[in-house]
Amino acid sequence: MVVDARGSWCPGPLMELVRVIQEEEVGTEFELLSSDEGSRKDIPLWIDKAGHQLLRIQNEPGFDRFIIRKSHS
Amino acid sequence: MKRVIVLGGGIGGTTVANRIRKGLEAEVAAGQTQIQLVDREGIHAYQPGYLMVVFDKMRPEETKRDESGLLHRSIQLVRAEIEKVDAAANKVVLRGGKELPYDVLVIATGSVIHPEAVPGFVDGAHSFYDLANAQKLRTAIQQFSGGKILVAVAGMPYKCPVAPLEVTFMLDDYLRTRGLREKTEIHYAYPIPKVFGIDTVAQPMQRLMSERNISFHIPFNVERIDPAGKTVKGVEGETLPFDLLIAIPPHRGSDVVGASGLGDKGNWIPTDRFTLKLEGKENIYVLGDATNIPISKAGSTADYEAEVVAHNVVAAVRGESVSARYDGRVYCWIMTGMAQATYIKFDYLHPPHPPTPSFAHYWNKVIYNRTYWDITARALF
Question: Of B230, B250, B270, which one is at a domain's C-terminal end?
């Protein structure tokens, strides 16, 4: 599932991730696209605290692609 | 005759209907185009006013008006419950079976709060996302004599992303003027590891909190509220006590969206972020809270989107090419005290940089609130 949060300054890409991760099934993989530089710090921090899995981060021109798996309900 | 239907009489629906009418003035006057707006109650609620009601800066009656007085007289207001949109047949079905055919449809059905979705919310939390609860919170704050106040977000997405910050800063200021701040702890809990979703806003807001002795708990996602024990349990494992809890309820898109098979699991409508068309449909536009676009669900978003949608609806009705694109523009004030504010302005390409809070920014917000009915809602410019 792709979550395109590029240009999402308010409330922000991480808030969008928190929203969609609540709605999907355990095991779902997400591709979160973010142009916000703060996401490189916030998203790994939140995923660790919330107990989900950050599979990898791909740097693309102008944005980052975070590959995430929902680990629990 | 061409038929344009707008669903919803909030900020987005009202302004877009009036803008479309202005653009199609000659066609409407000649009877070649009909514009209808469908709303369940026909009462327009100015929801940004609810926070102002909490702190006695607006009266409850100032937050609502009859929709018929806001729409241009040539727009037909249909006061009816919508059963569903039959997008395949280009018609809106009303409760009772009446059908309204359309050539172009604009969906502005907004968002709906669901406090019952969080265990303990209804009995344990105050909120200000509807007028009745804003008035109850006003009373609770007036009767408050000291203790722990907790502001928390109990679900996402929620409209007006800056509202938790605003109520926190206004409370701080209000309690200082009443001489109660020394007897009060203010706690702010937010679902991500910073006090707001974007760094350029979170950093100055976090500094303000520290200066004003406001504690923050991040990340904190509300799992359940214990009204008797006066605690909030977070999914991250932390439990926060309170004497007065102000929480932001979870929101969903309108049930009409679900009944029409147009939305995702939260009843948010998949919408092209630039054209504002319902994905896969050329003659249906979506604006305001109803979309799934990951930007602020806020009145200014709906207002700016209405400019684009109206421009394109006018072109579509005339058979011209549809070319206006929404650039993600949003403008929101952030109250940082009872008579002090800053603002955020941004679009898809440019993040916000809030200026130093001032009385002047606050006064601009006051002017906007007071002129909303006669300028923005009527689409005067």
Answer: B250
Annotated catalytic residue A10 = yes
pLDDT in tens, A27-50: 999 999 999 888 998 899 999 888
ipTM confidence score: 0.77
Residues B269 and B296 in one domain: yes
Q: Is the pLDDT reported for residue B300 higher than 90?
A: yes
Full 3-state SS string of chain B: CEEEEEECCCHHHHHHHHHHHHHCHHHHHCCCEEEEEEECCCEEECCCHHHHHHCCCCCHHHHEEEHHHCCCCCCEEEECCEEEEECCCCEEEECCCCEEECCEEEECCCEEECHHHCCCHHHHCECCCCHHHHHHHHHHHHHCCCEEEEEEECCCCCCCCCHHHHHHHHHHHHHHHCCCHHHEEEEEECCCCCCCCCHHHHHHHHHHHHHCCEEEECCCCEEEEECCCCEEEECCCCEEECCEEEEECCEEECHHHHHCCCCCCCCCECECCCCCEECCCCCEEECHHHECCCCCCCHHHHHHHHHHHHHHHHHHHCCCCCCCCCCCCEEEEEEEECCEEEEEEECCCCCCCCCCCEHHHHHHHHHHHHHHHHHHCCCCC
Q: What's the predicted TM-score (pTM) here?
A: 0.94
Q: Which residues of A fall within a CB distance of 8 Å from B194?
A: 38, 42
From the list B161, B219, B347, which residue is nearest A46 (CB)? B219
Q: How far is A38 from chain B (nearest CA, A)?
A: 6
Domains of chain A: 2-69 (3.30.110.40)
What one-character DSSP code corresponds to residue A7? Answer: T
Tell me if B235 sits within 8 A of A48, measured CB to CB. Answer: no
Tokens encoding B146: 């000291």
| Contact between A23 and B266 using a beta-carbon 8 Å cutoff | yes
Query: Is A10's CB within 8 Å of B193's CB?
Result: no
| Same domain membership, residue B182 and residue B86 | no
How far does the CA of residue B195 sit from the closest CA of chain A (Å)? 11
C-alpha dist (Å) from residue B13 to B23, B166, B283: 15, 26, 16
